[in-house]
C-alpha cells in the first residue's frame, strides 16, 4: 500500500458521494433512480460503502501524519490487501470508529500488526450488542450466561470458568477481550472519533456540486452500466 493509492481511493470516495448527491438532486429522474437502486443495490452498495469508509477513515479519521505512518506499517502488498479487505467489510460507522481506535493503537505501538488484524476481524464480525456488553462488564470478575456472553464466546472473548454458589455457570473475559475493549471499543481516541459524527456527513464533508447531472446523462449511465449483465 502506498500514498498514491490511498489518495486516489479517498478522492474516488468523495467523487462517488458527489455523484450520488448529484443524482439525488434531479427530481425528474426519481423513478429511474428508484428502479436503478432496486435492481442493483446489492451489487452497487458494497462499492459505495467501501469508498465511503475509505474517505471517512483517511480524510476525517486520520491526520496526514497518521496516514503516512499507517502506510509505512502496511508497506507489504499482502498487508495492504488485508487492510482494504477490512474497509470492504465495515458496514456501520460505529464499527469504523472501533477500527480507527485500533489503528491508533497500532500506530502508538500498543499492539502488533498481527494483533491489529485480529482485533479488526473480531470487531467487524461481532454484534454491536455483544461488544457493548463487553464494555459494560469487562471489569466484572465473572458474569452469568446471556446471549451476549454466548456471542462473545463464539468470538473467543469469553470462556466458561465454573459454577457459582447457585450452581449457575459463570464466565470470564479473555485477555484478548480486555485488549479489544481498551484499544478499540473504549480506546483513547474514542471521544475524538465520536465527535466526528460520522453519520452526519454534512458536518464533516463539504461537497461543492457545480452542475446537476442531466436526465440524458443519467439515462446513458443506466443504459450502459450493466449492459453486459
Question: Could you characterize what this model shows?
Answer:
This protein is mainly alpha-helical and 229 residues long. It folds into 2 domains: 118 residues, no CATH class; 88 residues, Arc Repressor Mutant, subunit A (Orthogonal Bundle), CATH 1.10.10. Helices cover 66% and strands 6% of the residues. Strands 1-3-2 form a 3-stranded antiparallel β-sheet. Strand 2 and strand 3 form a beta hairpin. The protein starts with a helix and ends with a helix. 26% of the residues are buried.
Task: Chart the SSEs and their pairings.
Elements: H1 3-24, H2 30-61, H3 64-73, H4 77-89, H5 93-107, H6 113-125, H7 128-137, E1 143-144, H8 147-154, E2 158-163, E3 169-173, H9 175-185, H10 190-194, H11 215-225
Antiparallel strand pairs: 1-3, 2-3
Question: Which short descriptors sum up this protein?
Answer:
about 230 residues, mainly alpha, Arc Repressor Mutant, subunit A, about 65% helix
Number of strands: 3
Gyration radius (Cα, Å) is 21 Å
Strand content: 5-15%
Report the principal-axis shape.
elongated
The profile of the biggest β sheet is: 3 strands, antiparallel
Oligomeric state as shown: single chain
Give the end-to-end Cα distance, rounded to a whole number of Å. Answer: 32 Å
Structural class: mainly alpha
Number of structurally distinct domains: 2
Number of helices: 11
Topology pattern, helix = H, strand = E: HHHHHHHEHEEHHH
Identify the strand order in the major beta sheet: 1-3-2
Helix content bin = 55-70%
Q: Residue-averaged pLDDT, rounded?
A: 75
Q: What low-confidence regions span 5 or more consecutive residues with pLDDT below 50?
A: 23-28, 198-213, 225-229
Amino acid at each position: 500500500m502506498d500514498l498514491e493509492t490511498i489518495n486516489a481511493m479517498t478522492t474516488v470516495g468523495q467523487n462517488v458521494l458527489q455523484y450520488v448527491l448529484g443524482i439525488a438532486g434531479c427530481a425528474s429522474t426519481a423513478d429511474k433512480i428508484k428502479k436503478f437502486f432496486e435492481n442493483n443495490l446489492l451489487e452497487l452498495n458494497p462499492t459505495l460503502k467501501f469508498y465511503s469508509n475509505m474517505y471517512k477513515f483517511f480524510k476525517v479519521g486520520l491526520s496526514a501524519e497518521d496516514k503516512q505512518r499507517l502506510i509505512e506499517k502496511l508497506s507489504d502488498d499482502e498487508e495492504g490487501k488485508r487492510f482494504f479487505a477490512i474497509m470492504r467489510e465495515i458496514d456501520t460507522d460505529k464499527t469504523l470508529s472501533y477500527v480507527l481506535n485500533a489503528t491508533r493503537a497500532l500506530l502508538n505501538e500498543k499492539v502488533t500488526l498481527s494483533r491489529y488484524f485480529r482485533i479488526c476481524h473480531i470487531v467487524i464480525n461481532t454484534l454491536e450488542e455483544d461488544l457493548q456488553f463487553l464494555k459494560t462488564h469487562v471489569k466484572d470478575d465473572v458474569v452469568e450466561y446471556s446471549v451476549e456472553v454466548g456471542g462473545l464466546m463464539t468470538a473467543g472473548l469469553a470462556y466458561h470458568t465454573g459454577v457459582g454458589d447457585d450452581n449457575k455457570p459463570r464466565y470470564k473475559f479473555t485477555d484478548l477481550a480486555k485488549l479489544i475493549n481498551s484499544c478499540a471499543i473504549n480506546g483513547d481516541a474514542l471521544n475524538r472519533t465520536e465527535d466526528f459524527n460520522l453519520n452526519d456527513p454534512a458536518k464533516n464533508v463539504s461537497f461543492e456540486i457545480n452542475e446537476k447531472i442531466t436526465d440524458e446523462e443519467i439515462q446513458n449511465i443506466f443504459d450502459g452500466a450493466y449492459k453486459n449483465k
